[in-house]
């Protein structure tokens, strides 16, 4: 499966999604290591997952410092600080990279990856873990607003990728406190009540949030896979993949 801004390949029984930089000179590398025995056996452990990546890539394990937060469905973003890197794992749901000295990683099994990248004012890359709570709390907006205050962003030069995560057909919640908050915070175009269930369209809501924050529609790519439906490729917590996780690993190639 190949499209303009991503590719999905199989290697030694593992599915690997690469988010492709649309600039003439690529400035980052970002890959989601999806379903496969080595990634599955790592059980979401970032150090073991990175070793699995090295084995699949036939290369030595990267010596770059690795940011691998413990994800807790919030909006905190880790920046490039050595005390945040393995073996330390602070709680956070995003990673911001601005140099080639670090790698960032996150783990997924139905929650939605969001990748943001721009070559200006200098190359930068942001990885976000946006599940239901992260989407309702608008981790996308929080991250972009905070970054804009520090860097004076050119929103016309930001690229974004959404997914793969669980689709609106399969993600539902009971009508609890968080569901009520989701119905309040998200556009009615992105949720629907059916009896005691409320179905939420997380990828669609994330795309709307990116557009509301002035990203160009043509710069947003939604990966056409559902982590629940496309079980050949993806791990899914709702399909009882309790410990297995897809592993997002990314870094800048150039930082000037």
UniProtKB/TrEMBL annotation:
It comes from Aminobacterium colombiense (strain DSM 12261 / ALA-1). Belongs to the purine nucleoside phosphorylase YfiH/LACC1 family. InterPro entries: Cu_polyphenol_OxRdtase (IPR003730), Cu_polyphenol_OxRdtase_sf (IPR038371), Cytotoxic_necrot_fac-like_cat (IPR011324). GO terms for molecular function: copper ion binding; hydrolase activity; S-methyl-5-thioadenosine phosphorylase activity. It catalyses: adenosine + H2O + H(+) = inosine + NH4(+); adenosine + phosphate = alpha-D-ribose 1-phosphate + adenine; S-methyl-5'-thioadenosine + phosphate = 5-(methylsulfanyl)-alpha-D-ribose 1-phosphate + adenine; inosine + phosphate = alpha-D-ribose 1-phosphate + hypoxanthine. It comes from the Bacteria. SUPFAM superfamilies: CNF1/YfiH-like putative cysteine hydrolases. Gene3D superfamilies: CNF1/YfiH-like putative cysteine hydrolases (3.60.140.10). This is Multi-copper polyphenol oxidoreductase, laccase. Keywords: Hydrolase, Metal-binding, Transferase, Zinc. The lineage of its organism: Bacteria, Thermotogati, Synergistota, Synergistia, Synergistales. It holds the Pfam family Cu-oxidase_4.
């Amino acid at each position: 499966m190949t499209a303009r801004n991503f590719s999905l390949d199989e290697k030694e029984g593992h599915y690997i999604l690469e988010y492709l930089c649309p600039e003439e000179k690529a400035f980052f590398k970002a890959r989601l290591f999806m379903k496969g025995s080595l990634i599955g056996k790592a059980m979401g452990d970032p150090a073991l997952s990175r070793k699995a990546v090295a084995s699949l890539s036939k290369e030595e394990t990267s010596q770059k410092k690795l940011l691998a937060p413990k994800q807790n469905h919030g909006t905190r973003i880790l920046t490039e600080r050595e005390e945040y890197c393995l073996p330390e794992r602070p709680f956070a749901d995003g990673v911001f990279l601005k140099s080639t000295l670090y790698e960032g990683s996150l783990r997924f099994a139905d929650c939605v990856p969001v990748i943001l990248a721009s070559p200006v004012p200098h190359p930068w890359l942001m990885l976000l873990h946006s599940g239901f709570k992260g989407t309702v709390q608008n981790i996308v907006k929080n991250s972009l607003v905070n970054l804009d205050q520090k860097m004076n962003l050119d929103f016309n030069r930001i690229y974004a990728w959404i997914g793969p995560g669980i689709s609106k057909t399969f993600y539902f919640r009971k009508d609890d406190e968080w569901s009520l908050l989701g119905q309040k915070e998200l556009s009615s175009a992105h949720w629907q009540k059916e009896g005691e269930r409320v179905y939420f369209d997380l990828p669609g809501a994330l795309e709307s949030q990116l557009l509301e924050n002035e990203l160009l529609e043509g710069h947003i790519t939604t990966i056409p896979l559902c982590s629940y439906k496309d079980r050949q490729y993806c791990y899914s917590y709702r399909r009882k993949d309790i410990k297995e996780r897809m592993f997002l690993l990314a870094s800048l190639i150039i930082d000037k």
